[in-house]
Amino acid sequence: MKRLDLIFSERELDAIINTLEKANVPGYTVMKHATGRGPERVVTEDMEFTGLGSNAHVIVFCEQELIDQMRDNIKADLSYYGGVAYISEATPL
Amino acid sequence: MKRLDLIFSERELDAIINTLEKANVPGYTVMKHATGRGPERVVTEDMEFTGLGSNAHVIVFCEQELIDQMRDNIKADLSYYGGVAYISEATPL
Amino acid sequence: MKRLDLIFSERELDAIINTLEKANVPGYTVMKHATGRGPERVVTEDMEFTGLGSNAHVIVFCEQELIDQMRDNIKADLSYYGGVAYISEATPL
Amino acid sequence: MEINPILQNVLAPPVLFFLIGAISIFFKSDLEIPAPLPKLFSLYLLLAIGFKGGIEIQKSGFTDQVLPTLGAAIMMSLIIPLIGFFILRYKFDVFNSAAIAAAYGSISAVTFISAESFLEGQSIDFDGFMVGALALMESPAIIVGLLLVKFAAPNNRPNSRKMHLSSILHESLLNGSVYLLLSSLIVGFLTAFSNPAAISKMEPFTGQLFYGAECFFLLDMGIVAAQRLPRLKNAGSYLIGFAIFMPLFNAFIGVFVAKLLSLGPGNALLFVVLCASASYLAVPAAMRMTVPEARSSYYISTTLGLTFPFNIVLGIPIYMSLVNKIIPLSPL
Amino acid sequence: MEINPILQNVLAPPVLFFLIGAISIFFKSDLEIPAPLPKLFSLYLLLAIGFKGGIEIQKSGFTDQVLPTLGAAIMMSLIIPLIGFFILRYKFDVFNSAAIAAAYGSISAVTFISAESFLEGQSIDFDGFMVGALALMESPAIIVGLLLVKFAAPNNRPNSRKMHLSSILHESLLNGSVYLLLSSLIVGFLTAFSNPAAISKMEPFTGQLFYGAECFFLLDMGIVAAQRLPRLKNAGSYLIGFAIFMPLFNAFIGVFVAKLLSLGPGNALLFVVLCASASYLAVPAAMRMTVPEARSSYYISTTLGLTFPFNIVLGIPIYMSLVNKIIPLSPL
Amino acid sequence: MEINPILQNVLAPPVLFFLIGAISIFFKSDLEIPAPLPKLFSLYLLLAIGFKGGIEIQKSGFTDQVLPTLGAAIMMSLIIPLIGFFILRYKFDVFNSAAIAAAYGSISAVTFISAESFLEGQSIDFDGFMVGALALMESPAIIVGLLLVKFAAPNNRPNSRKMHLSSILHESLLNGSVYLLLSSLIVGFLTAFSNPAAISKMEPFTGQLFYGAECFFLLDMGIVAAQRLPRLKNAGSYLIGFAIFMPLFNAFIGVFVAKLLSLGPGNALLFVVLCASASYLAVPAAMRMTVPEARSSYYISTTLGLTFPFNIVLGIPIYMSLVNKIIPLSPL
Ligand SMILES: Nc1ncnc2c1ncn2[C@@H]1O[C@H](COP(=O)(O)O)[C@@H](O)[C@H]1O
Ligand SMILES: Nc1ncnc2c1ncn2[C@@H]1O[C@H](COP(=O)(O)O)[C@@H](O)[C@H]1O
Ligand SMILES: Nc1ncnc2c1ncn2[C@@H]1O[C@H](COP(=O)(O)O)[C@@H](O)[C@H]1O
Ligand code: NA
Ligand code: NA
Ligand code: NA
Predict the structure, then answer these.
(1) What is the SS3 assignment for D143?
(2) Burial category of F220 from C-beta neighbours within 10 Å (exposed 0-12, middle 13-18, buried 19 and up)
(3) pLDDT value at position E332?
(4) Residue C88 is nearest to which of B3, B30, B32, comparing CB atoms?
(5) Are F254 and F82 within 8 A, CB to CB?
(6) Searching chain A, which residue's CA lies closest to the CA of residue E226?
(7) What pairs with residue C92 in β-bridges?
(8) F52 CA from centroid of ligand 6 (Å)
(9) Mean pLDDT, 10 residues at a time, over chain E (332 residues)?
(10) Where does chain D have alpha helices with state H?
(11) How many CB atoms lie within 10 A of CB E58?
């Protein structure tokens, strides 16, 4: 099994979740209110009240083939709005 | 060293932490307010006020043998209430 | 690519971020409001109002050499105030 | 004449804010009230309802009408889940039937205060002791629901989860929202008893602020309810029908009980609303813990996505006209 | 005489709390108002402004002055972004120019209420319908900004992101803060119309609490603004100059338009402040979604780090003296 | 006669809400006030205490009694940590002794306002300038604690952590809660001085709401204190004894100082309560940063789990009877 970590602006959340749901991932976890700095933009929690939102961190445990399936859609979203995606190994308990 | 990721309903938190403490894990980190979708249930942050709580994401860095020790207890909790558990490799800095 | 997980008291956040920025990491993600238990101290969200803060969980995806560069500084911070740091493998999507 | 009170109800600020919350979802606005702000308002409302109710009960004392009304309230919250259970068993398993039925036996505090606001808007009197009925109707329905699971469930539940009476009582009485409401009621009672000067010091917080905080919370409830509504599709038409039929049915029983109790129109409406409303706080939280076999999306989507908006917008004025028809106005 | 109103403005609680927020950053205090508490106050202020504004508009009705003023307000929020765009294009690309310009065409509700507090402190009258102008100036500037991107942007934007009129309208009208302000205004209007008794029940929440909540929010705004200020260094001196020059320039146009409209000094100040203030809520949120090519640190650091504090502390009294010079006091 | 004021204190809403919070933990209710809501109330209380205190100080001016009282307050917050340090050194190392002692030299704002509520309940007068004493007692104790670490600690602390006077002053004066209290006090003072009309505009927020917000915060404090209590077991009986003995001892010194200052019974009680209370906001936050060698569970569990509840429930009425015994009522 793989673990996919996606980190991006909360405002993209709906789009990314759509992609995940369409690929029929077995599940996913969303952590909002993440902040951070990427190569281009700085996001801090302090700005949350402006509606800019902070980042969301999404974790998906799934098979590699599902990831391959979603790759292009996710990359398109992230390249437009910013955000990062990393894969690592994970074994179910 | 291993990294154990547990994601489950906040309401189970006490039970899971009991299991961790009993196994004498060196430490753990809890992130509340996680939301997500699993194969059976949908949890959103919006429902937090109802007392349904959202999910908790628990990270434990520990040795494989501790994980083996806790496996059955954790699995029992997760199978009853729902939730997922994944193991991956991790090296201390 | 590597994934570096740092978990420590929110009060250290500025120091750690300074270290990350000085090393010119490509980016990082900060999740505040984490709680947990380490070998020495117990941190719960309930104490947040006292200004003790809870923990921060920082994720950095970067190359191994950057991590080597930052190792000493990070270890110094963590050994003084407490906290943990773990490295694992990660592949960009 | 029939549409007038409905329109008047819809044009009150709490209902209007509920509607703009719901509309924001239909129009895909990104209006959001992030957690834990809704929890702040929900805790505040429970605390304030309880505190004010405790004061009123102490002031009015246990008059003739109080004990029979409270008794009838408890009785209703025991009977309604049983009726609901049998209706639901046609289509659902024991776990889901018991959980949903318990929700309809219990009450919704926000529906109750919406009814109070409605009565104030219509200048109809009601008594503070009705908050006692509110507080007493939460737990019995949970107990009935859990007993139904205990006795009607198949024997193959995991051993470690056998429900003991103690854990049933714990879930029904020490659930966060039940506990806060009950204990605030006691605080209000004791304060009115021993420290009446403190009442006016609490008044700006628990009294004056209440209506505005209710509006703010209903704005959020509108958002949540509208997000829940689409999920009802998966629940099927039987459950959708149940979510509208059951409150009407309960209201109907309630109004006759209210007549037997010789309640005035204000108290009668509140009694009916307690019967007709369904819980989305205490019961779901308790069921999630004790009956994980039941699908939370069933009991939440019905109570929150359909029954709650129905009661807030249409139900209350409908129940009022029901009360006015069945219970003849006694001369002053 | 010139320094007096500035000092008096600075010594009002909202401005003082803003300053102690900002000073806490300079002194590296660890004072923090964690998310989502600022959001609570920002939602509250929008709801209360809208609600009270709606009541005032209903009460005053659409007198002679109302429609021309609202029309002029809309016009200003269409013209200012165009002017700003051309000034910014000297140094910035289409995306950044359009986003920043839109922010300056739109308004800041907190600057507006600071001006109202200032007027109350000086016992100068103003009309409730000016909140209508506030509400109407948010969206047009967003529309102009997005149209500028649509038509002036290079053709190589990704296909899927072509801006359709529908999505432009969606972003400009259904943005969370625009939606909450507009719909609360409608709720206030409907309430005043159909349910005037409810106004006094809302008053403790939307009225009495307002000033204190404004202070609390400004404490946070001081923290945020001071955190933003250092980031302006990267933006360069052209943008820093723009962030001070543009509000003054807009105020100057505004005061002459106010004169043409024969507004009294109170309404004139509010009109000028609407022109001079820049948005850090609705516009940044909309631009972040629709024009990700623009650097959010540009349009946020200028509006929040420089223009907002400038307006709050110095701008309002300066604009007041401008109004007093250009618009001769008409005899009562 | 001795039990009466204790009972009366326990039956006041703030104490009752504290108790129902604590009881919820003993009964394992899942009542929860999620972060950052407690922070909202803690920020609010500090802001409101400071603001009202600043107004009172400006109004009363610096009369004969003010400066000696403030001086004595500072002196007490310098001496108490020294005494505490020597008592604790029998059992604990320098770091823990200094951190715990500093907490007891400093104050708890919520204990102070509970004492004010107690006095109001008993219709006993007190002066607004006592808030000045509150504000001035926070920092000196931190300074003493850090100086004790600086001079008494073993030499093997890591080099980079040598405590400079500047960092000691920073921690003691710019700590978030110290800063907010002090700066709100200044805002209140300046407002009363230059802008008295604004006082009544703040009143609903900082005044009327205060009592209710205090109750809500104490509900949370009850939960937190009861969660902390079991952790004291690890601390050992010496520390448990200290957590009860120290406030009584400090109160005893305090009442004689109050007598020397010829304070009236109201002010005397407040002075005694400042001496007897221990900090769980400013000091722990400062110590966590500067003395990480000390175990935070020691200084938090004692102050929050034992001393705070003791003072709130039993301490205040005990101190009142102490004051009444030692300080004879002067004729008016
Ligand atoms: N190398 C990284 N490691 C961890 N998080 C990152 C990294 N790069 C970007 N992020 C996160 O992704 C968000 C968006 O990044 P960006 O696309 O650069 O704007 C940032 O705010 C960070 O939270
Ligand atoms: N495949 C998955 N990847 C990441 N998180 C998951 C996954 N499956 C379940 N979860 C999380 O675990 C929670 C409980 O899942 P479940 O047991 O399916 O109800 C969900 O709400 C998710 O937050
Ligand atoms: N083995 C571990 N696994 C996961 N998180 C840990 C571990 N040890 C410590 N932590 C986290 O790091 C924080 C500080 O730990 P400590 O340095 O032991 O005080 C704790 O509060 C936990 O959140
Ligand atoms: Na019911
Ligand atoms: Na403008
Ligand atoms: Na003290």
Answers:
(1) helix
(2) buried
(3) 45
(4) B3
(5) no
(6) A46
(7) A86
(8) 22
(9) 72 94 94 91 94 92 87 97 96 95 95 94 92 92 93 72 80 90 96 92 96 95 89 86 96 96 96 96 85 86 93 95 85 46
(10) 3-10, 13-26, 37-60, 66-89, 94-105, 109-121, 130-152, 165-173, 176-194, 197-202, 210-228, 232-235, 237-260, 265-276, 282-290, 296-302, 308-309, 316-326
(11) 21
- Provide the pLDDT for residue F50: 94
Distance between Cα B91 and ligand 6 center (Å): 46
Q: How far apart are CA E38 and CA E43, in angstroms?
A: 9
Residue D3: burial class (beta carbons within 10 Å; 0-12, 13-18, 19+): exposed
Cα C45 to Cα C36: distance, rounded to the nearest angstrom? 9
pTM: 0.94
ipTM summary value: 0.94
Stated length of chain B: 93
Give yes or no for A37 touching C (CB within 8 A).
yes
D-F Cβ pairs (cutoff 8 Å, strict): 91
Name the DSSP class of E205: I
Whether D103 and D280 have beta carbons less than 8 Å apart is answered as yes
Query: Is the confidence at residue C18, as pLDDT, over 80?
Result: yes
> pLDDT by residue (tens digit) across D154-208?
776 765 566 788 888 888 899 899 999 999 999 999 999 988 889 999 999 999 9
Confidence of residue F3 (pLDDT cuts 50, 70, 90): low
pLDDT at C44: 67
Q: Is residue C47 over pLDDT 80?
A: no
8 Å CB contact between E319 and E263: no
Q: Which of E34, E280, E297 sits opposite A50 (nearest CB)?
A: E280
* β-bridge partners, B60: B4
According to the model, what pLDDT value does residue F311 have? 96
What burial letters (b/e) apply to F134-162, b meaning 16+ CB within 10 Å? bbbbbbbbbbbbbbbbbeebeeebeeeee
**Angle of helix D176-194 relative to helix D130-152, nearest 10 degrees?**
150
Q: Which helix (H) or strand (E) holds E221?
A: helix E210-228
Where are the alpha helices (H) located in chain F, listed in sequence order? 3-10, 13-26, 37-60, 66-89, 94-105, 109-121, 130-136, 138-152, 165-173, 176-194, 197-202, 210-228, 232-235, 237-260, 265-276, 282-290, 296-302, 308-310, 316-326
Contact B9, B81 (CB under 8 A): yes
- The answer to whether the CB of F103 falls within 8 A of the CB of F299 is yes
Identify residue C69 by its one-letter amino acid code. Answer: Q
Instruction: Kindly report the number of other CB atoms within 10 A of residue B68's CB atom.
Output: 11
Q: Which residue on chain A is closest to B67 by alpha carbon?
A: A93
Contact E107, E277 (CB under 8 A): yes
Block residue for tokens 């992101």: E161
What's the rounded Cα separation, in Å, for the pair E36 and F35? 10
Q: What is the rounded average pLDDT for all residues in chain F?
A: 91
DSSP character for A49?
A: G
**E248: exposed, middle or buried (C-beta count within 10 Å: 0-12, 13-18, 19+)?**
middle
Q: In this structure, what are the phi and psi dihedrals at residue B58, rounded to the nearest 5 degrees?
A: -110, 130
Nearest one of C12, D259, E225 to D267, comparing CA atoms: D259
Residue given tokens 């950044």 in the structure block: E96
First to last CA, chain D: 24
- By residue count, chain E amounts to 332
- Check CB contact under 8 Å for D30 and A51: yes
String of DSSP letters for F98-151:
HHHHHHHHS--HHHHHHHHHHHHHTT----TTHHHHHHHTHHHHHHHHHHHHHH
pLDDT confidence band for C38 (50 / 70 / 90): low
- Residues D238 and D229: their CA atoms lie apart, in Å, by 15
Contact call for residues E270 and E116 (beta carbons, < 8 A): yes
